[in-house]
Amino acid sequence: MKLFVLLVLAGAAALAVGQNSHSKTDPKFVAPPEAATKENPLAGNAQAAAGGKKLFLRSCGECHGEDGTGIEDAANLQTPEVQKQSDGALFWKITNGNVKKGMPPFARLPETQRWQIVSFLRTLKPAKEASPSGGNPPSSPKGR
Amino acid sequence: MRLLRRFILVLTILLSSFLLAQEAPYFVTYDHHLEEPRNLEIATSSTIGVPRAGQKAYFAPYLELEYGAKAWWTTEFYLEGQSTRGDSAVFTGWRLENRFRPLMREHWINPVLYVEYENVNEATRIQKEIVGNTPDFGAPNAELVRERSHELEAKLILSSNTHSWNVSENFIVEKNLSASEGFEFGYALGVSRPLSTMASDRQCRFCRENFTAGLELYGGLGSTEGFGLHNTTHYLGPVISWQVSDNAWLHFSPAVGLTRESNPVLLRFGYSYEVRGFGRRLARFLRGRP
Question: Which of A53, B3, B19, B144 could form a disulfide with B15 if both were Cys (CB 3.0 to 4.6 A apart)?
Answer without folding.
Answer: B19
